[in-house]
Design a protein that fits this description.
mainly beta; 4 helices; nine-stranded parallel beta sheet; single chain; Jelly Rolls
Length: about 525
Amino acid sequence: MFGWNGEKGCVEALSSEDGWQARALDGRAWLIGLLLTAGLLVSGGAQAQIFSGSNYGPIPDGTGNGPLAYGAPRDIRFNVGGLIGSVGQARVFFRANHSWVGDLKVQLIAPDGRAHLLFERSGATTPTSGGFNANLVSSAQYLFGNDFTGVSGTNWWTAADIGDNDIATADLFTPVISGDNGVANPAPITSMDATFGTGDPNGVWTLRFEDGWVGDTGDVTLAELILPSAGVDRLVSNANDTGTGSLREAMSLAQAGDAIRFALPFFNTPRTINLQSALPLLPDGVGIFGPGAHLLTVRRDSAGEFRIFELASGTQATISGMTIANGSVPTLQGGGIFSSGRLTVIGSVIRDNVAQGGGGITNLQGDLTLLRSTVVGNSAAFGAGVRIRNNATALIDNSTISAQGGDRVGLTVIAQGGLSSSLILRNSTLTDTGGAAGIGLAVQSQGAGSLASARISNSLFATAMSTIVGTVANGAPPPVILSEGFNLATDGANGFLTQSSDRTNGNAPMEPLFDHGG
């Protein structure tokens, strides 16, 4: 039920038998009304909770003439706890003022580290452009997210392309890519649900504001995070391969919006699930949240040849907090993980798996996000560590790829048959891959019209034969390998590290990888 709380324009949404909960204060009836129109507050037993932010205040000014001269961030934090299931949708609402919107970068960051850009360099279509000079005003209400049922969002650039005037409309806005050289106006839209879907909703979310140009300033005065969901928690209570309380049972029962979690205190002690046969496909719309890679290992036992996890095309899943080991598909792709869907892997170790291609992970015509993970000791004839192939995209951040066998290539991006594949590699290490014949990153275009590409930043390449290679075959255009700076390679990186902040032929002494329990 809804009840007016005695203040004009203020409304509270209270618990009801339909299972939803929400709240809104301080005159934000507009937001509640929009969510009601969309059916997000009362929808088949779903829940929608609105979490108020904290740490409002000035956005620190840019450090110089921009673009991208970012000052310190203003981080608005949302403490989320007690939610069940996994993230189905995510929306964020804020009020702020700033006299030149083109200066700003705004992104939403989930507790597990995945981030989604709302906008950056709005209106910039050249490398040095200041973008739109429209103004954010605190009287307006800016809600960002995917379209609702019956509610279509406005492209942010369309709303901001109004000259030196106020963006004063209360509306649902769709996030867009960053402005840059050659970006169309309006900029292409992006999907927050694709980024955050199947994640763990609990923890501290951050709405980050950054100013990239000195001069114009502003403040954040209000923000709220909206997390509708309709799932349940499926609990794994033992390390058995089959039966009640097993991971296999939980995967068989899980539905979209559910979360698979592991019972404590049982999984506070290191446990191994020894698989005698392949698990079911990863269920669509489900997150599997392990207790930590040092506490849970899911591995193939000695019987049979099968991989550990597989995600089908057109589906989405998250895997976190586990070690994935000993998968074996010698004539197929993806020994540890094979994905043709939208897969996020966080805080995990993928080790000692074998395949014909992509010993640790194969991402074929899918979207892979790999965060804070280690891929080590895998083997394949083609792409021993991670293989990104054919209409596939990947983001690898804060991860280590090391000590691969087979073709001795740690990370492969390959495009064939007129298709494309792309990689963003950030804050990562490719090292000790394949001994004396090891290659860190291989970017390969094969066949007319095929294009493989990689953008790399803040990463370390320390392999014996070649740290970065780009190859072309059968009439394909050359692969595109772009450095965004602050990379270190122990050789010349075949000339691909071109930024002034890059370092080549450097020395990168490192200890062997070791499990320190983190």
